[in-house]
Specification:
With 107 residues, the chain is mainly beta. The radius of gyration is 14 Å and the shape is globular. The strands form 3 sheets. A 4-stranded mixed beta sheet has the order 1-4-6-5, with no helix packed on it. A two-stranded antiparallel ribbon has the order 2-3. The chain is 7% helix and 32% strand. The longest helix is centred in the N-terminal third of the chain and has 7 residues, at 27-33.
Amino acid sequence: MISEISFSTWNINGIHNKVLGDKSKNRDFVDAISNTDFMFLTETWNDQNLYIPGFETINSIIVQSKSKTACRKSGGISLIFKSKFKNHVTIVKNTKNFLWSKSPRKY
């Protein structure tokens, strides 16, 4: 049985950056999430699953660019959680504006 579970959220302002590249492969990023059980990333501007060893990822449906001149997609929510919770996470709603999940009270 698990006695504590940690949750966090982070407005990541795009998972890909011109200077840093793919933030999910950046050591500082991985270190920041390594002690968190469930991390919600907002404004990922991405709909691809992230590969971070020991974690699972679920993405929202991303909002498409509003015009042909927009340089990127907008929105995007990712739920990153430790792999040990894989069989305990259920998605309730997944749209361009919501990523709702639930988990049982006991593990």
